[in-house]
Amino acid sequence: MTSVEDLYEIWSRDSELRETLKQTLEPRGTEWLFELFASLGPRAGDVLVDVGCRDAKHAIRLVREHELRGYALDPLPLHVELAKAEVDQAGVELTVLEGAIEALPFDDHSVDWIWCRDVLVHTDVRRGLAECARVLRPRGRMLTYVTLATDRLEPRERNLLVHATALVPESLDPAQIEAAAGAAGLQEIAVHRLAGEWRERMIEDDSWNAAEALLMLSRVQRREDALVEAYGAAAVDAVRGGQLWGVYQMIGKLCPTVYVWERDA
After folding, report:
1. C-alpha 160: how far from its chain's center?
2. Domains, the chain, with CATH or none
3. pLDDT tens digits for 47-71?
């Protein structure tokens, strides 16, 4: 354990370390995920399914850039309507469907690629990955981005996130995710543990304001009763959970992770 004397001695001469930490590590950003998909070699005419598509912007881009046949799937009617509007505006051949990962509306062995971003933590991951394996053709691949808990996330912090942001507790666990993939017949081709890398890039690019997130969290804490009365507990919890999501990535409690899985032949 560091003594008080040692601590203040370190702080008195840590300017070189601080300057080192101010230098960028050239972090990858969200564009890297599209670069990773391209590196896997999609071919014109392949069938892509974006599972949990939200507004379908990712699916639109992938279909357009790689000349794919595409489906954009989401379980929420709100997202389905947003996706249909975006597809109409983009003028691409992309079918939008309402449906969930646990019951995919596709035939066995009918899909070449699955794109799944920010979805698995809200799902029954064993059922969902089994369905993905069912619809993938032999050697078909699934690219998944999912934010997982680390051993630094305390139980009360985990419970807060689960309650506030509609998470399935088991689906936050990397061991559970990897076991479910293996049981489904999905072979791990690659795994990239990004930690706070994307958030670093967002801060460096001014596309995410960490100071604003911390201010919001402090204000929620100081005025929680009044905010709950005015906006409801669910709304306040959702804001708190949403802001903690990025902060926890920065301090190592959550680890955004990218898996590339291939269906067994």
Report:
1. 18
2. 24-149+166-196+253-263 (3.40.50.150)
3. 999 999 999 999 999 999 999 999 9
